TrEMBL record:
<keyword id="KW-0597">Phosphoprotein</keyword>
<keyword id="KW-0723">Serine/threonine-protein kinase</keyword>
<keyword id="KW-0547">Nucleotide-binding</keyword>
<dbReference type="InterPro" id="IPR000719">
    <property type="entry name" value="Prot_kinase_dom"/>
</dbReference>
<dbReference type="GO" id="GO:0051707">
    <property type="term" value="P:response to other organism"/>
</dbReference>
<dbReference type="InterPro" id="IPR017441">
    <property type="entry name" value="Protein_kinase_ATP_BS"/>
</dbReference>
<dbReference type="GO" id="GO:0005524">
    <property type="term" value="F:ATP binding"/>
</dbReference>
<dbReference type="InterPro" id="IPR001245">
    <property type="entry name" value="Ser-Thr/Tyr_kinase_cat_dom"/>
</dbReference>
<dbReference type="GO" id="GO:0004708">
    <property type="term" value="F:MAP kinase kinase activity"/>
</dbReference>
<dbReference type="InterPro" id="IPR008271">
    <property type="entry name" value="Ser/Thr_kinase_AS"/>
</dbReference>
<dbReference type="Pfam" id="PF00069">
    <property type="entry name" value="Pkinase"/>
</dbReference>
<dbReference type="GO" id="GO:0004674">
    <property type="term" value="F:protein serine/threonine kinase activity"/>
</dbReference>
<comment type="similarity">
    <text>Belongs to the protein kinase superfamily. STE Ser/Thr protein kinase family. MAP kinase kinase subfamily.</text>
</comment>
<dbReference type="InterPro" id="IPR011009">
    <property type="entry name" value="Kinase-like_dom_sf"/>
</dbReference>
<keyword id="KW-0067">ATP-binding</keyword>
<dbReference type="GO" id="GO:0006950">
    <property type="term" value="P:response to stress"/>
</dbReference>
<keyword id="KW-0418">Kinase</keyword>
Length: 277
């Protein structure tokens, strides 16, 4: 039978986000645990639009093992939308980095392979995530790694459709999104996900955001200049040549030169043997 909101009991708050709160909930009849994201969609139309986008994309991606699993949605009369999803008991990679520190290359390999599998699935289904960053990748104690938070994602209806509709900004955005005119003004957004993916892996390996020194306070103007006008950051010598090259393929400034998910899945780093895995 379909789960209704009355069947669920709130246990704890898992996180706050843009216009929403994520709760750990218990399905009373079965004691199964879920995550419930409640969005106050009565406040403004954009928040509501984001919630509806997230629902439609999660629905399309239910058979991908590296996308957080969708279990249903509810609309409350007072204008709240709620999204029921699988509970990821390990939290996000952002919290994992803060609590356990930098990722070893073996751990990074497992995380990279999972995110890349998820991205390959999304891109093959014409979905651009547009907000890949450590806080939007969730893990569980089974060792699974899944992409979450599809609030600003986009389903590309036309092959040459562009991604200008998303006007949000975050530090993981690619050079062509900050500065579209410098890249001929046309890009489709798939390559932008790869840039964000590369920066995410870089950050997990070195322990801090790539364009900033450890502990340096982010200054938006300096950051944007660095991304748009400097060479892409290069991984430290402590990384294997395969890993360094893999990141370099993700962080090509020119979007047309950046590798696709298909190319990256066949990169030597993805084929490397990790004895400890
Ligand atoms: P933001 O826009 O700030 O990224 P958001 O409103 O889009 O946030 P999410 O990123 O989906 O919300 O969730 C916010 C936080 O809640 C996550 O970073 C994570 O810590 C936690 N969270 C979300 N979904 C789950 C889940 N399924 N299982 C466990 N924790 C979750
Ligand atoms: Mg988020």
């Amino acid at each position: 039978d379909a789960i209704t909101i009355a069947d669920l009991e709130k246990l704890a708050i898992l996180g706050y986000g843009n216009g929403g709160t994520v709760y750990k909930v218990c399905h009373k009849a079965t004691s199964a645990t879920f995550a419930l994201k409640i969005i106050r969609s009565n406040i403004d139309i954009n928040t509501r639009r984001r919630a509806l986008t997230e629902i439609s994309i999660l629905r399309r991606a239910t058979d991908c093992p590296n996308v957080v699993r969708f279990h249903g949605c509810f609309e409350k009369p007072i204008g709240e939308l709620a999204i029921l999803m699988e509970y990821m008991d390990g939290g996000s990679l952002e919290t994992a980095l803060a609590t356990h520190g930098k990722f070893s290359e073996e751990k990074l390999f497992l995380v990279a392979r999972s995110i890349l599998n998820g991205l390959a699935y999304l891109h093959a289904h014409n979905i651009v995530h547009r907000d890949i960053k450590p806080g939007n990748i969730l893990v569980n104690t089974k060792g699974e790694v899944k992409i979450a938070d599809f609030g600003v994602s986009k389903l590309m209806n036309h092959t040459f459709e562009m991604c200008y509709s998303y006007v949000g900004t975050n530090a993981y955005m690619s050079p062509e999104r900050f500065n579209p005119d410098a890249y001929g003004g046309s890009y489709n957004g798939f390559a932008a996900d790869i840039w964000s993916f590369g920066l995410t892996l870089f950050e997990l390996f070195v322990g801090h955001f790539p364009f900033l020194e450890p502990g340096q306070r982010p200054n938006w103007a300096t950051l944007v200049c660095g991304i748009c006008f400097n060479d892409p950051p290069t991984m430290p010598e402590t990384a294997s040549p395969e890993l360094r090259n893999f990141i370099a393929c993700c962080l090509k400034k020119e979007p047309s030169e950046r590798w696709s998910t298909t190319q990256l899945l066949n990169h030597p780093f993805m084929c490397k043997d990790f004895i400890t895995c």
